[in-house]
User: What shape does this take?
Amino acid sequence: MKDNKKLRMYALSEIEHVKIHGRTAGNRSPLALFWTGSGIELNAKGSELWVEVEVDYRMYEPWISILVNSVPVSRQMLTAGRYWVCVFRGMDENKIKNVRIVKDVQAMSGDTDCVLKIHTLKFDGVFMPVPDKPYKVEFIGDSITSGEGAIGAKTEEDWIPMWFSAVHNYTAMTAAALNADYRVISQSGWGVLTGWDNNPHSNIPDYYEQVCGLLAGENNKALGAFEEHDFASWQPDVVVVNLGTNDGGAFNSPEWSDPATGETHKQRRNEDGSYREEDLEAFVQAACAFLVKLRRNNPKAHIIWAYGMLGIPMMPAIYCAVDLYMKSTGDQRVSVFQLPNMTEETAGSRTHPGAMAHEHAAKELSGYIKDILASKI
Amino acid sequence: MKDNKKLRMYALSEIEHVKIHGRTAGNRSPLALFWTGSGIELNAKGSELWVEVEVDYRMYEPWISILVNSVPVSRQMLTAGRYWVCVFRGMDENKIKNVRIVKDVQAMSGDTDCVLKIHTLKFDGVFMPVPDKPYKVEFIGDSITSGEGAIGAKTEEDWIPMWFSAVHNYTAMTAAALNADYRVISQSGWGVLTGWDNNPHSNIPDYYEQVCGLLAGENNKALGAFEEHDFASWQPDVVVVNLGTNDGGAFNSPEWSDPATGETHKQRRNEDGSYREEDLEAFVQAACAFLVKLRRNNPKAHIIWAYGMLGIPMMPAIYCAVDLYMKSTGDQRVSVFQLPNMTEETAGSRTHPGAMAHEHAAKELSGYIKDILASKI
Amino acid sequence: MKDNKKLRMYALSEIEHVKIHGRTAGNRSPLALFWTGSGIELNAKGSELWVEVEVDYRMYEPWISILVNSVPVSRQMLTAGRYWVCVFRGMDENKIKNVRIVKDVQAMSGDTDCVLKIHTLKFDGVFMPVPDKPYKVEFIGDSITSGEGAIGAKTEEDWIPMWFSAVHNYTAMTAAALNADYRVISQSGWGVLTGWDNNPHSNIPDYYEQVCGLLAGENNKALGAFEEHDFASWQPDVVVVNLGTNDGGAFNSPEWSDPATGETHKQRRNEDGSYREEDLEAFVQAACAFLVKLRRNNPKAHIIWAYGMLGIPMMPAIYCAVDLYMKSTGDQRVSVFQLPNMTEETAGSRTHPGAMAHEHAAKELSGYIKDILASKI
Amino acid sequence: MKDNKKLRMYALSEIEHVKIHGRTAGNRSPLALFWTGSGIELNAKGSELWVEVEVDYRMYEPWISILVNSVPVSRQMLTAGRYWVCVFRGMDENKIKNVRIVKDVQAMSGDTDCVLKIHTLKFDGVFMPVPDKPYKVEFIGDSITSGEGAIGAKTEEDWIPMWFSAVHNYTAMTAAALNADYRVISQSGWGVLTGWDNNPHSNIPDYYEQVCGLLAGENNKALGAFEEHDFASWQPDVVVVNLGTNDGGAFNSPEWSDPATGETHKQRRNEDGSYREEDLEAFVQAACAFLVKLRRNNPKAHIIWAYGMLGIPMMPAIYCAVDLYMKSTGDQRVSVFQLPNMTEETAGSRTHPGAMAHEHAAKELSGYIKDILASKI
Assistant: This one.
């Protein structure tokens, strides 16, 4: 191999023109990436670019995708260690390449050791400004929004990072269709009131106001994951909430028993199979309270509850919650949108939406959001 | 990171159940991968698998794609060095995963240092047999067959390995549609008589009978690239020749002058723009001679000259060549097939066919081959 | 022309094996077709078939489509008069042809003279039984369900029968996907509480229990249009209500003033553009009352309120109405489904859904209904 | 029915602004339509339009399609008699409607009584000029070009006009993509040298220079079908010859024996299944002679032999013929293009290409012609 003598090292913190995607605690030396879809974006005028990552985990390793001029060209598992990854080499040094390095896997609440940090870049050119897109969108969701199953054969059943994708994901596709910057807050199996297993702690709203509060452990604390998120720093035009699928699933799961306290929780069905009114009502109250919290932190956003890629059993309750919220607050900038259901044809791995289901959802959702942004609705 | 204590090392040569794709010189310690689409395939029953690669280059680095159960899950640049790449981890140890590790870039005739070797596997399970597919297909071609431009934005113009793909490629897609094992012999810019630049040395036929004779240098010699290929070891049912595009391009390029001898070569046009008869005739003779060579080495194969993804100016000459060959030999198992032209919609990077153009070509070509294999033609 | 001497005349009433589609008053000599999608279906074993129609109108002429073995082969305007239309000729007399003659235009509430009657068939073969399909579906709707705009160039603006289609219509497509017989009750511009123009008489519920009560005039009275419909004769498994689009439109239209009484009606907006609560509530009550009426007449059906092909502003009110109905009756077999929005790409004529929008809606809706019929929901 | 008092009668011959499609003998009182795709085109500013047709046949009745603003809105069988067909009514009298009335069925060489004449129009408005399109294309072919099987269920086997379409046809689609006026010369079962059944009289070239010489009988004589065609009146930019499919089929059919003379004809295979050289050569000579005839009559046209929708066994012979023609004449403006093969998915009725196969062919062919018209080839 011939060395490129022109390469220079840049601590990420000293690069003026880098756009950071995803919530962070502010530290850039190094930059910790928490959420799926988070990462860095550069307009790099030069021939060769490397990025230095630091990675660890007990169970769930991170993956990244690299996009050059908006096209995914690389996707790879990041094994443990601190090392250099080459982003591109041998390119025309006079042309500007838009580069995004994207975390392809969700924040891992089940693995306190899981960490992905970006330390340094090695480059032989100049970093040019990365302008903001005209819109900002925040997506909040569960496994669907984490892109679980968006890659891989239909037969795959392992719960591993390999099957997650931030790129073949309705979030990225919707943002691209809207020409928007975007962020994702998501966790597989979690809900508004409880997780799929009736665990009341697996709820997104409790952690929404922290940088990445659903993580645990000293490592993540040191990285600032539990700090209060600075909402003023990034105000979305649209917030998409894609939650409810696991709250619905809880009605089909056994009760959850807290190993610490012995307390149990269970969303129950009536004998005819319908959902128990008081349990639904608990969901409605939780969803309504979440809307209050979302509005408080995102004063200018249109909030869309978007739901339906894996069935719509909770839709009446979601409409009730939004109705309750709107009547009690007078807030008109909230609406509900049904996403198209996954079909056999569009299913991915782990009986989750595949890339085609995500495309389908993005097409419908972005059409709806465009009308809202054009003030048609 | 928690170490997996069950991992064991296996030199590739000691693994009974590994299928090698692509021509090799027989050595397995290590295995050198030359051609695009070459690689190893395993049916791996275990939870974690690593592969040790050794990589070097002066200019053009290799890339690999990893397919798990036939779905591409990873694609990455391989930078210089000898190191381990994790294929999968954390999977159900009792399930068999079909894994293919595929060289995504063509043999690099322009970089004598370019090498990709596979040494060792690290695995915690058992390798199961990988049965042969019912058919074998060999593809012979140029940049189209090398998948140049099958990945990347339309605006990309750099000639770099990043834009090559063996996976989003009509060769892989056609083989999948036919349920066939396949091999590829290809080189960007090369032709039957000359390359795009009128260089008469850039012709595939001269090197067809070596393992990978279009490479150069001592490294490749040591790896066996220039040895005679053992055709008996792998007899295709179908040979697809996708050459002629660069022979056509030569009519539009300046003459080529041999830096050593000063000899020049040029395929010429008449004043009205048509191709000079004697220059076309030289192509016809070269193509006919190549068919003789193909038949000698592939006695049972149906040979298909498939051409047209970047226009069809040479098609009359190709038909002439095949007609001449058939009449002079009596061989009936040769035919010509026009591939669908790339359109603005289906173009990839470097004004070459994109993934959609490859899909389109694979659909038409595999339909045609199916009819042949069913003896309908 | 050579006469076919084997042709025999059959009054429709004397044919045992004819399936009548659409609500009728029972008379078969002749048979009056009221609703879009109504018609006759035959399994005709013979070579030549004619049908005698009687047609009149003041403004809006009827159109028919003819389907042979489920494929539309003919579509034509029926001008005034009593005359013969040839369905097929010259066919193999020993093969059974499934033939459907379908009214392609809605019942015309605005033209008391509009009538389409079928008197007699001329045939040279045998009519074979036409078995019932495994399911029955009733669709209730407005212009969308009438297929207004499903044919014709995007620029068309005339309100004429030419642009209506019962065939390129989500109703027919959904029924085909479900393998169901189906009926349609629909009227352009009408709603649940009022029409698009705030006219409170343009509501479907008031006329739902008559054969075709929204028509007027002595002709239609004589044909039995105002008789009570015999619900027992045809009990659907699913009732799809696609109403609300015009109720939503009324909020944007000027007030309607009754020419007879001077009474006015208007669905009003608040200053911030939102819908007035009491006016929405009137819609909710009307929708809830309609559900009560639907259930009374269709005891075994799953009722689906399907809405959204031209936006979803009324969706919250629809959910409220269904919630109110379910809570007040305990009836669980009612649900709401959002149909995919028309896009610029899928628009037809008269800024209404085109054939592609209908296909899109049918795909989503039939997927949802299949799950219901399979008792998954 | 209310009479439209403003309707006035116009003999077709007295209308200045009517565009006639298809070859005719010049007579306009009435206008006889011979070929599929022939018809009249109007830019009609008025509210109501009728056309008076005169129809007869012994076996094969004509069908027409009506297109309003380029969209097919009506398709109907025309039974024997002289009568009025309403084209549109009730439309905005101030808007111009582009109307085409198109013969949907080929000239019927097997039915001397078959005739379709247009006498008179009834209209309440003004006929505006119909400008010529920028290009003219002539299509010459067999059943594929006649649109046999482009409509109807896959199971249909009757040879009847119902399954023919001039609209869902690659000819119409290619012309639309090129923004070209077009004409069609075609006959099911016919070829260059012989028909599918080895009948040497079923060849298009012998009749190419007459208005519609492949018809027979006194009726057609009186209508001018056998007159010499005035090529100067309509000079195409492109001639597409889609012949060869039946010449290929002849190799699989029994010999044809002339009932009059007892002479026989047969295209023969060798024992190994290949085509006999001298029989192929007869085809090559016939095809070459046809090219000479085409060039004589169409001096400025690029001639494209387009073949392949039902397999490509004759392609080598077609290339030979074109090569022979080009070498013997020096004419460079001739080329060969392979059309995409019909698949199971795209098949229509009578195992002929369906509408999807025609769309596919039109897409490829129009792309190729665009390049030629842009002088790229």
User: Anything to note?
Assistant: The mean pLDDT of chain C is 97. Chain C touches chain A through 25 residues (CB under 8 Å).
